[in-house]
Write a sequence for this structure.
């Protein structure tokens, strides 16, 4: 590779080298306010390194032909797209997939996504997003793996593996691009694109680990984020892009900016386009998405001594290396296959995988009197704006996904209900009645949320009549597709008012109400939790939504998902996360007391804690058995619990290991996830579940940012979620 790239670079002009650093957008995946112009001419002139937004064999072939036939050096282009949770076959949104706690499933989904995407000419995806998110107001919490650094790293690494496979140059593997480096999930007030300000200690211990884990998993590229880190935008931040990423973590791929994040540094107050572009290159950025700042200004900066030839060469080399690794120099059309596109996309197997993964992602939040699973008899009323709806099944970021091909809840339930059950339906309410909100949801003039012409009262009345004639009500409500995802922050995270009014009217009928919740984020469900009979959180399940939901509702699959982000009781508690510090005045968990760290008007507790999720069966945990309580140095501790399925159904349980370090040189979280195992237990069956603990799991970054463990006492917890645990203590000497 080195020799090949060096030889090629020896033939390149400075302008051609700078051209490789340019990534314009083609097609319709515009996620900013600037569009690329004159792309074809630029390709001919050697001013483009890659294209994002173009896919489909015919289209990609045409564009690649221009590059390899009509540009002087015939360098192939790299083709990228946001393939976030599936390409054509859509899987649950990432936050949903993370709730499976099954890395193998995320790897499988990413493998299928890569197979489908590569058949359509793509060889690069802007995924996974591994930003830690502690603020559900932030709409992009839907795109990541939740709030935990360890789980986030394990799942992110699994996705990288799924996309890239063992051989990046195979025609069905694609390069992953880990984003948004870094700390993008910590925008103040949960507002998109907002300021991030945190200590290095927090970065190293909580926010950086998932990026690091995906670098270790071999991601070929990273995306720099929009936000500032320590006052300097990530895209121009040398500490982040070079010191940490390359020098500490030994990353050897390339870094692309986020959409116009180079030119946005002008707004951040870092200088004019020439200055910010030079800053980005010097910081370690290799490719400029859409700004064209590097393309337009780098030659001038070179002439003026603001950047060096070596800096340009280095970035160019990294882009060419990526193309080499993808096998594009050998065959620029390797990823373009009409034949594969016809055979490997939306296959029954891919759809089946999507259905299974979706069922595993559902989180049962409440199930009073075992109302679920539903019996296949009597009258089941399906009510709500998502009950007979295909568009909202897919969730955010579905560029290649076609919602017309998704299975609605109605279709899925009807297909499984059998001859003895009658399914009735009423829409019951609009997704929202707020016209201003609807305008924002329907961005780019897409009719994503439409209004039923009837009055809210008339719709509710119809729903109430339908409910009265039923044995059980299944209310399918929540957030629509564009209520979460990029640029979809919300200051109020309730179920929209029109739907809440519907729920209240349904509960008033006295019929049991099962709430099937569509959502891209944790919502505030305090009223719902107190008033409905059951809540099954299905996120946005993807192409097979209705089938997977019916699988869970009727018990063909017993729900096993667990939350990876805390559900607060009220928006005022945010940020609320399980791995918080103790403070000097911790609350005792009972009642609000003056001069303790608590609220006057609300408990500190979440509604549903991290790691929480019920099953149709019940699991009982025996006491925690520790192999030793006194340890020295590199010994291994074994922590074991007996888990018994004490209910009527076979089921799966994710057993979680947490560790707390109550005395250290820096204040440490009350507990941190350090391991998990998802097990299957038949009704009545017991299993001993053991975790091996070594000093690695006790390690953290201290105030000198040195990674090590400190001798002393440790609390060991094993349980069904971050709150309900069995506890033990050990003393570990150096
Ligand atoms: C902006 C988003 O922040 C990023 O995640 C995405 O990959 C790019 N737009 C390209 O669509």
């Amino acid at each position: 590779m080195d020799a090949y790239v060096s030889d090629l670079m020896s033939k390149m002009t400075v302008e051609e080298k700078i051209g490789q650093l340019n990534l314009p957008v083609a097609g319709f995946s515009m996620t900013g306010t600037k569009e690329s112009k004159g792309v074809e001419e630029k390709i001919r002139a050697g001013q483009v390194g890659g294209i994002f937004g173009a896919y489909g064999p015919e289209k990609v072939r045409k564009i690649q032909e221009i590059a390899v036939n009509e540009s002087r050096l015939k360098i192939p282009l790299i083709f990228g797209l946001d393939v976030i949770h599936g390409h054509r076959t859509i899987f649950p949104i990432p936050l949903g997939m993370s709730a499976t706690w099954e890395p193998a499933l995320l790897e499988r989904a990413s493998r299928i996504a890569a197979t489908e995407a590569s058949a359509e000419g793509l060889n690069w995806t802007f995924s996974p997003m591994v930003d830690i998110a502690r603020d559900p107001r932030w709409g992009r919490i839907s795109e990541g793996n939740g709030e935990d650094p360890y789980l986030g790293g394990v799942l992110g690494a699994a996705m990288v593996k799924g996309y890239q496979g063992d051989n990046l140059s195979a025609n069905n593997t694609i390069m992953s691009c880990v984003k948004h480096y870094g700390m993008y999930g910590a925008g103040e007030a949960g507002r998109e694109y907002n300021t991030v300000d945190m200590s290095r200690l927090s970065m190293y211990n909580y926010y950086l680990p998932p990026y690091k884990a995906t670098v270790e998993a071999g991601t070929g590229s990273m995306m720099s984020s929009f936000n500032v880190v320590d006052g300097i935008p990530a895209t121009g931040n040398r500490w982040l892009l070079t010191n940490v990423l390359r020098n500490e973590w030994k990353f050897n791929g390339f870094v692309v900016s986020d959409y116009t994040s180079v030119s946005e540094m002008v707004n951040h107050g870092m200088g004019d386009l020439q200055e910010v572009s030079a800053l980005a290159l010097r910081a370690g950025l290799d490719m400029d998405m859409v700004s064209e700042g590097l393309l337009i200004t780098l030659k001038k900066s070179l002439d003026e001594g603001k950047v060096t030839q070596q800096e340009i060469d280095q970035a160019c080399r990294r882009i060419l290396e990526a193309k080499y690794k993808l096998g594009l120099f050998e065959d620029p059309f390797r990823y373009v296959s009409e034949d594969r596109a016809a055979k490997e996309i939306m296959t029954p197997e891919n759809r089946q995988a999507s259905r299974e993964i979706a069922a595993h992602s559902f989180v049962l939040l409440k199930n009073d009197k075992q109302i679920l699973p539903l019996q296949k008899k009597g009258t089941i009323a399906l009510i709500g704006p998502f009950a007979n709806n295909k568009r909202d099944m897919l969730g955010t970021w579905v560029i290649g996904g076609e919602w017309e091909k998704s299975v609605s809840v109605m279709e899925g339930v009807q297909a499984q209900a059998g001859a003895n059950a009658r399914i009735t339906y009423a829409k019951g309410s609009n997704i929202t009645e707020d016209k201003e909100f609807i305008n924002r949801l329907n961005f780019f003039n897409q009719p994503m949320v439409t209004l039923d012409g009837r009055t809210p009262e008339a719709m509710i009345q119809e729903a109430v009549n339908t409910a009265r004639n039923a044995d059980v009500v299944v209310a399918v409500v929540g957030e629509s597709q564009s209520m979460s995802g990029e640029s979809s922050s919300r200051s109020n995270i309730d179920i929209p008012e029109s739907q809440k009014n519907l729920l209240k009217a349904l509960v008033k009928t006295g019929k049991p109400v099962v709430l099937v919740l569509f959502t891209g984020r944790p919502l505030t469900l305090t009223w719902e939790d107190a008033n409905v009979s059951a809540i099954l959180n299905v996120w946005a399940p993807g192409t097979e939504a209705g089938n997977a939901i019916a699988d869970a509702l009727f018990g063909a699959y017993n729900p096993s998902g667990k939350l990876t982000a805390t559900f607060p009781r009220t928006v005022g508690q945010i940020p609320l996360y399980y791995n918080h510090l103790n403070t000097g005045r911790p609350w005792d968990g009972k009642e609000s007391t003056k001069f303790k760290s608590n609220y006057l008007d609300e408990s500190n507790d979440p509604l549903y804690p991290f790691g929480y999720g019920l099953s149709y069966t019940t699991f009982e945990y025996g006491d925690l058995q520790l192999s030793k309580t006194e340890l020295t140095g590199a010994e291994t501790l074994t922590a074991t619990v007996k888990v018994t399925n004490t209910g009527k159904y076979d089921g799966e349980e994710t057993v979680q290991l947490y560790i707390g370090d109550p005395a250290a040189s820096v204040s440490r979280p009350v507990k941190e996830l350090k391991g998990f195992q998802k097990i299957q237990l038949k009704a009545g069956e017991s299993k001993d579940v053991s975790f091996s603990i070594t000093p690695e799991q006790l390690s953290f970054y201290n105030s000198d940012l040195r990674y090590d463990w400190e001798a002393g006492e440790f609390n060991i917890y094993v349980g069904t979620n971050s709150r309900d645990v069995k506890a033990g203590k050990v003393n570990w000497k150096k």
Q: What stands out?
A: The first strand starts at residue 22 and ends at 23. Residues 125 and 296 are 26 Å apart (CA to CA).
